[in-house]
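Self-study notes.
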Amino acid sequence: MMTLRVRSTLRHLDVFLILGALLAVAAIFKASTFYNLSNLFAILEMSAVLGIATLGEALVLIVRGVDISVGAMMGLAGTLSACLLPDFGLGVAILVPLAVCAVLGLANGLLIEKGRIPPLVATIGMMWVINGLANAISEGRLIPIDNKAFQQIALGSVLDVVPLFFVGLLIVGGVAYYVRSDYPIGRYVYAIGGDEGAAFYSAIPVGRIRIAIYGVAGFLYGIAGLLMASYVRSGMPSVGRGYEFKAITAAVLGGIALSGGRGNIFKAIVGAVILIVLYGVITAFAVSPYIQGIIQGCILVGAVYYASRYY
């Protein structure tokens, strides 16, 4: 009985133990490099960007889907914003990219649900379409962002300690967790991923909810893209390259099941923080950046193996 209780506790705290272990390694071996204010500020900002993208991917995975267009939508959002800022101002440069990304997310959902195209194929196709659109808009070049208000999104902080980015992540994550816990739609999402047939015969609108989830995911990718554009002070179609795999890795690391229907949204966000902290530790140890891909691949495979055995 005690062993089962311990194992259950470890399953609930696993991501927090991993995060604590990484922070402890940094404190023991690279405290001066890792634990300085500018580095911690950057880690929180990048955690917010990846965390919001991971939240979108996690929702898709829960309804037994997958989305490979994450990075492309992030690049498009930043590129659109950079193009709109000089002539239309901050409001339009934020709202239009978010609306476009939400519509593209809905298009993903429609291709999958109505077109009966497998999620992997549909979202890879959309990734290429969105990349092409972003490159056509920017003519394949970096577009500098000089708008001070937009730059302030990345520079701003609460009490000069917590970046606005991270506050935004906590708000978005809190809203998602509240909807999951207190509204029927949250339970429907898990029901669809757990047993689509049973959900259908329970009068749950499976198709509409899955399409809506892809739309919400697109909206979240748009937010992540705008945050990244503010951080790098430019719009670049390639700025989100690779984020689809980082988001999947972070979600699975946080316990989101690739088979759908299971996983904790909050722990998925913690998974994103773990990845960013890991990259920070790797950088502090001056490990070659080329090794990061190897480590990320090993983490993804290990996380899937762990989840399949213990969740």
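Second protein, same conventions, sequence then structure:
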Amino acid sequence: MAVSRNKFRRPFFVAVIVVFALLAYAWQIEPRRIGVTRLRLPDALARALGNERVVYIADLHVMRGWIQERPLLATLAALDPDYLLVGGDLVWYEGDVDRTLELLKRLHARKGVFAVLGDSDYNGRVRNCAYCHVPETRELRHDLPVRVLRNEAVELAGGKVRLVGLDVEERGGWAPTVDRWLDGREPTIVLTHFPYALPVIASRGADLVLAADTHGGQIAAPRWMIRLLFGPLREHFLYGWFHERSTPMFVTRGIGESIVPLRFGRPPEVVLFTGGN
């Protein structure tokens, strides 16, 4: 009987050790392994931007004990972008906006840092006004190197490129902003947290859409499981390139995590766009 018990104890303990090792990896190691995904800009943007480097990050989900800060800042410093674009979900749900603001103050790009907000930035008691205004005033703040775009546009590369930032969907939808700014006059980048905006954007056309929200699944799992847990839209726009009509969209895996602070098989990424191969 004792032999029989020992026979099953060893595999059990080995299994427990493996599970805890995988959890430790997903909690403390993979979230720090920020990789760089290098992509080529679409032709019209490549011609307009020349040798300028566009870096894209999203889904920061800054929280207490946020372990991605040091590797993220080191990666961004090494890439030395001309433009840094931030695709929303800056803070953990109902998290510490002040800590997020301190991180934003450390972001840098030669010619500008631009961001949009995501659903977590509007969640519960999160003070999203602090990204644009001096707290408890109506005065616009100028101490952040980041300009938050809320259904508005800015010109890049001396007016050769238009950057449009879509905010969280309003009652009238995204169509009014899309109709206003996507006029085809110059190459256009649309920055949005939500890949589900692609059909609306494609109705007018853009040279590049940058989206986020899905975290690439965050944990490697079968597509049917992601569809069951999070719905068909999230499963469809999980990660990578998508096209509708003539409009290309790239969805990033992002930097941080949501729901549970774990990543497994879906490491965080910084995306570098250049005009070269």
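Instructor comment on the second fold: The longest helix spans residues 2-29.
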